[in-house]
Structure to design on (250 residues):
């Protein structure tokens, strides 16, 4: 999906999960929400630099960090295992479970450990922020598997590809807009119900997670997701190009 879709959908999903805290502890929601938005764009190492400065230029700058630190390191690790990657910007590197786990590990090392050594109080907030990053990257994969370019869950160890039927830049396809509306409706219902006092406090988070699962399930089902084999072997340069429409990505 394109950058703005990733950001909006990921933030809505994060608010759904943590809807019980929106009014009672907005600071925690803000920290997790910020981490989720960051995690929602980190896997897009193939993002092209915008021709003109915009908010997307900031996103492009952010993804240079995993592109330089994580993608190159992953490429070297895979090469030692006999799976050389010829293009360090190959989106399959970070649109996979090993890729996002590697980025998550690097983020933990560079953010959480220094905070823990410096001040344990700050470490708690950093931990929440990292939790948001993990959530955002997971949501990024869930959103991208609904698109035609899909994700590659076990790249480079498997050529399996999970993809849907959505072309994010196709304005005639209203499904992404429906997913935004669907998420907002679920969020609004959860806020009303959870603050009505009708639900026991022990169940509010369970209901929120159920609401997120329902949103993601409907999104995946409506996107005609299938599992197939990626025809391009791991050693071949990536053929997944950025969309030229509006300078954004699928």
């Amino acid at each position: 999906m394109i950058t703005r879709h990733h950001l909006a959908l990921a933030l809505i999903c994060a608010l759904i999960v943590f809807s019980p805290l929106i009014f009672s502890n907005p600071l925690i929601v803000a920290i997790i929400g910020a981490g989720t938005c960051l995690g929602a764009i980190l896997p897009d190492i193939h993002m092209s630099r915008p021709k003109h400065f915009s908010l997307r230029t900031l996103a492009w700058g952010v993804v240079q960090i995993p592109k330089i630190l994580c993608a190159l390191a992953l490429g070297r690790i895979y090469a030692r295992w006999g799976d050389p990657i010829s293009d360090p910007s190959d989106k399959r590197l970070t649109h996979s479970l090993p890729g996002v786990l590697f980025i998550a590990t690097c983020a933990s090392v560079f953010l959480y450990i220094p905070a823990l050594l410096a001040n344990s109080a700050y470490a708690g907030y950093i931990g929440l922020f990292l939790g948001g990053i993990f959530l955002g990257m997971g949501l990024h994969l869930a959103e991208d598997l609904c698109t035609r370019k899909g994700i590659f869950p076990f790249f480079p160890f498997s050529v399996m590809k999970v993809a849907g039927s959505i072309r994010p830049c196709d304005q005639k396809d209203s499904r992404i807009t429906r997913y935004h509306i669907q998420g907002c409706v679920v969020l609004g219902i959860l806020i009303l119900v959870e603050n009505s006092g009708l639900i026991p406090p022990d169940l509010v988070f369970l209901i929120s997670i159920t609401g997120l699962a329902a949103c993601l399930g409907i999104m995946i089902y409506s996107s005609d997701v299938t599992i197939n084999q990626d025809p391009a072997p791991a050693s071949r340069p990536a053929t997944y190009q950025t969309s030229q429409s509006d300078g954004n990505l699928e």
Residues 3-231 form one domain. Residues 55-80 form the longest helix (26 residues).
